[in-house]
Design brief:
69 residues; 3 helices; mainly alpha
Amino acid sequence: MSHESYTACIEACNSCATACNHCASACLKEDDVKMMARCITLDVDCAAACQFAAAAMARGSEHAKAVCA
């Protein structure tokens, strides 16, 4: 499947990754960063997953459907 058919999903994944990275950055600015460790970890994991999914779709990977399921 061509990447054009995934355009809306790619944009959504990129927006999600941006939001997750923003949240992680905000957590790092908290006074008690240690208390935010789990949140930061989840934010970074979420951003990475979204970036991976967007890249797979942009490449037209045969695995894009499975990655995004």
